[in-house]
Amino acid sequence: MKPLFTKGPSLGVRLLVLVVLSVALMVVDARFALLKPVRSQMSLVLMQTYWITDLPQRLYQGVASQFGSRTELVAENEKLKTENLLLQGRMQKLAALTEQNVRLRELLNSSALVNEKVEVAELIGMDPNPFTHRIIINKGERDGVVLGQPVLDARGLMGQVVELMPYTSRVLLLTDTTHSIPVQVNRNGLRAIASGTGNPERLELRHVADTADIKEGDLLVSSGLGQRFPAGYPVATVKEVIHDSGQPFAIVRAVPTAALNRSRYLLLVFSDNRTPEERANDAAQAQEAEDKQNGVAPIVPATVPKPAFVGPPAPPATAAPVATPVKPAAHSTRATKPPATTPAAKPPATAPATTRQREE
């Protein structure tokens, strides 16, 4: 009796074909950029998977917020009001200091401080590879995200965008072994390079001289020398400095200020692409508009042109008699003859009288 269906290849052959196909795809993906469009399209499907996997947690949070007790909500509301009041007071002080700093930098003919534009993003996934520190956020190319864009949380810098997809992006964290960032000590401006160690709680400063002025507790901020991260953002805090007399460099370990394993909401920093001249012109125009709005516009032009006539404060009538007695005293009687203006102003009888007296 003939079988209704012909017998297909064995399971071993199928497994071998799938293994070869998988290896070929991995090699093509690693060596060439042919599969990047396919990966971008697959991200659209995977985004729905991320949303479905995150659905239980969001449902739990919604139910918990609905069934929360009234007393807890009232207490939390009072606490938030108090914190809001304190933060508003601090914000007013910071606003005054920022404005004062901007004015001082303008007086020093320096570039104006412009706050970077930021956008809130949410962490939706993590790389399962234990040897790489990468996360996935819910902002992609269609949201204006670019490669190399800095990412930070409420405490400090976290990393930079290394891969773009239409609606999502991959972020390489500071603690990855392939990542380094130029930093400087906030206390004295000492520059160094902070590299990842593979440990989410540790960074290392490479090639720091054994005699360098760095100690435990120093705050490390981004120096902005790499033209990738904006300057002045906190990166890490020095935890340990080991000096070895037999080694030219000290061993410096630091702890990242950002909560790399706990932050869920992040900030994407959009840097200012304007040239220094454009920033200076915009700052000058903004300052002029603010002065006009405050009614102090006439004061600025009045103080600028006045130093132009420092020389002629004395009237010409007083300058003539001062010059006439000094010049003849230093020269002979012949020096009194050239100034023909003084005899023209005075009677001719006075001129010979003065000359006779000086000759005697």
UniProtKB/TrEMBL annotation:
Protein keywords: Cell shape
Pfam families recorded: MreC
A Gene Ontology biological process term: regulation of cell shape
One cellular-component annotation, GO: plasma membrane
Presence of the UniProt keyword rRNA-binding in the record: no
Composition bias, Low complexity: 319-344, 351-360
Record InterPro entries: Cell/Rod_1, Cell/Rod_MreC_2, MreC, MreC_beta-barrel_core
Domain Rod shape-determining protein MreC beta-barrel core: 124-269
Region entry Disordered, spans: 278-360
Similarity section: Belongs to the MreC family.
Name of the protein in question: Cell shape-determining protein MreC
Species of the source: Pseudomonas nabeulensis
Taxonomic path: Bacteria, Pseudomonadati, Pseudomonadota, Gammaproteobacteria, Pseudomonadales
Gene name, Swiss-Prot/TrEMBL: mreC
